[in-house]
Amino acid sequence: MSLRRVLSNILVMTAMIAMGLVATRALIATMDGAITPDSVSMSVAQASLARLWHRRLGHPGVDAFNQMTKTNPELMLFKSKHLRGQLCETCSYAKSKRNLFCTSTSLKPISMTNQVQHGHTFNNFPSALYCTDVKFQPSYHPTGRFDEAKHYFSGKHKLYGLKLEYSVAYPCVAVNRSEHSPGSVADVTMFMHRRHVHKDMLRKSASEIKEVDHDEGAEEYPDSWSILVDMGYQGIQHEVRSMQPKRRPQGGLLTARELERNAQASSDRVLMENYFGRICSLWKVMRETYKWNESRFDRI
C-alpha cells in the first residue's frame, strides 16, 4: 500500500470517527465476524478485566490486535479505544457472571460457612480454609555496601528480589497479603512473623465449632480450620493447624500412603499456582524485574 493511499485512508477514517461510524468496522476486524455489529455495547469496565474476559472467551487479545494493525493501518487510530472500552454482548454477559470467573485480585474476607454454602472447599482437604505461598519478584541489584545488598539475594532463585506472602481461597480469591520482605528471608520465617494474622483468620466461629470436623489436626486444634502450605513450611504445625506434604526422612523412604497424601496436597495447592499465573498474565509488572524504589513496591 502506497504512502498516498495510507494517508488517504487515515483522512477518511478521521472523518468517520468524527461522524461516529467507525465502531462496527473495528468490531468486525477484531472479532473476525464472531458476532454482529449490532451487538456492540460500551462498558465502563477496567482495561484489565476487559482483556481477561476476551481471553477467557477465546477472543483476539492485544497481541492479535497488534498483528491486525500491521496489515491494516486504519485500525491503529482506535486500537486503544477498542481495548479499553468496546466489549461484545458475550463479554457483557461474562461481566454479569463474573463471580464464576477468576477476575478479582482484591483481598476479600471469607468464612468456612460461606465457602461450604457456595461449594468452594478443597477436594482432598475440606477443612482447609485457604492455601498460602510466597511469590518472588526479581529486582535490580540494590545500591549500597555488599553486606546490605546480600540481604535481598535469594539463594533459591539466585537473584536479587523481594517477596510477598499470599493467601488464596476458592474461587481463586486472595484473602490475605503480607508486606514485602527481602529475598533472603525464608518463606517459613515470613509466615511465623505473621502467625497471629493466620490464627485470627483460621479461628472458627461459635456456630462452626459445633460442626463435625474429622479432618487432620481436628483434635489438636478443635477451634481452628487448617491451612494448605508446601513442604518449605516445616514447623508451622506447632503454631497453626496446617496441611502440608511430608518430607522424606533422611536415609529413608515414604510409604505409599504418604506419597498419595503428598499428591493430594499438591493437587489442592494448584489453586495457588493458578493465582500467581493469572496476576502475572494480567500485569506486566508482576512478571518482570522490578525497576522502581522499594518503598513503592507494596503500593503497586
Automatic annotation (TrEMBL):
Keywords: Metal-binding. It comes from Aphanomyces astaci. Its cofactor is a divalent metal cation. The keyword Disulfide bond does not apply. InterPro entries: GAG-pre-integrase_dom, HARBI1_dom. One of its GO terms (molecular function) is metal ion binding. It comes from the Eukaryota. This is DDE Tnp4 domain-containing protein. Residues 131-293 form the DDE Tnp4 domain. Residues 39-96 form the GAG-pre-integrase domain.
